[in-house]
């Protein structure tokens, strides 16, 4: 026998026992965005590499080392999408949704990053995100944060997540701060690790995000971003905080929260949990007022977030919130003999027609009654419909309640649906 081909490392199958849990989560996501008036947008998985270079940024981890980039047969450089925000802007602009309009959009789907796979970090993972366009004020920042908070509330896990917020100011304020930060860090270069030294020349703000305790200690005495913010950004941040207070949403201001993507300005935020180890950021986002114009559209304010669905599902599993599926069928049809089998298929089709929400499974592959009843049990069916020679001759079906021992009755073909729905409510 030849060796079976394995999946690519970091790209996982989601098997049936888990898809049921994913569907539970997805249903809540859809319901939540609908309740805030957001519309779904779907866009391709592959885009021109330039889209991500020009938005996420040339010197970010994502573009520098995590993208799946390849040459198309006609020589174009394409990339599997590593995130949705840039693609959403591209699609919304191309679809003429942005000019002089306001949009509340959401998306869900796979993203690809060549990272080191570990718990909560994969090479193919899924994001659920919302993006809103045409709203410049902190009321919209507060709205998307409130929407995210509602997701935790829907599962009763609010206490397991912490909201961190920060303001990055305008691009000018951030540039001014970057100069001050670099000047300070240059003086203490010997205390920086290799990664931070490299970032000093490429993406200095990301040093604030360093996990190295020595670097963090050094940053205690570094200039603060908040001291360099422009007046309007300060005002907006205060208003956002007031709105979160009013909505009863707790937060902490984390002055070192900068996010790893270049397009953010002003508000940035993350929801973090302590329950997943080091991959604790479940949802992250912020404002990106410059991106639409940067990608060739007309200047449009924008704010949004993306959630890692794997991390959310992991968190819910860890907290034991998701229900395991208990059965794969409600009704199982058991039949012996050719005529009975044909009639069973017909009855099953009628049932699916009259009660579409019932899960109706026909036994396939023959075998005696005992074997067939075992299958019904295995699938967790609540009702077995049994057809043998006698039933066919009398134009009847035996209806057996599998959850109540010994409860069974024989009904006419025409009464099967009502007999079944009387048992299954
Ligand atoms: P991290 O700091 O964990 O690397 P990030 O800043 O790269 O996250 P974003 O690009 O903002 O993350 O993506 C938003 C969310 O998507 C993250 O908060 C996380 O939940 C999820 N996510 C990002 N990368 C991965 C991955 N490789 N595997 C699984 N989920 C991921
Ligand atoms: Mg990352």
Q: How would you portray this structure in words?
A:
With 425 residues, the chain is an alpha+beta fold. It folds into two domains: 16-170 and 230-318, Bira Bifunctional Protein, Domain 2 (BirA Bifunctional Protein, domain 2), CATH 3.30.930; 331-424, Anticodon-binding domain (Rossmann fold, 3-Layer(aba) Sandwich), CATH 3.40.50.800. Helix content is 39%, strand content 20%. It is built from 15 helices and 16 strands. The chain has helices at 16-35, 49-55, 61-66, 85-94, 138-155, 171-187, 194-202, 213-219, 231-246, 291-294, 309-318, 338-354, 369-378, 389-394, 416-423, and strands spanning 39-40, 46-48, 69-71, 77-80, 103-112, 124-133, 162-167, 252-253, 265-272, 281-287, 302-308, 331-335, 360-362, 383-387, 396-401, 408-412. Strands 1-5-6-11-10-9-7-8 form an eight-stranded mixed beta sheet. It has a five-stranded mixed beta sheet with strand order 13-12-14-15-16, sandwiched between helices. Strand 3 (69-71) and strand 4 (77-80) form a beta hairpin. Helix 1 packs antiparallel against helix 5 and helix 5 runs parallel beside helix 9 (231-246). The longest helix is centred in the first third of the chain and has 20 residues, at 16-35. It is elongated. 35% of the residues are buried. Bound molecules: adenosine-5'-triphosphate and magnesium ion.
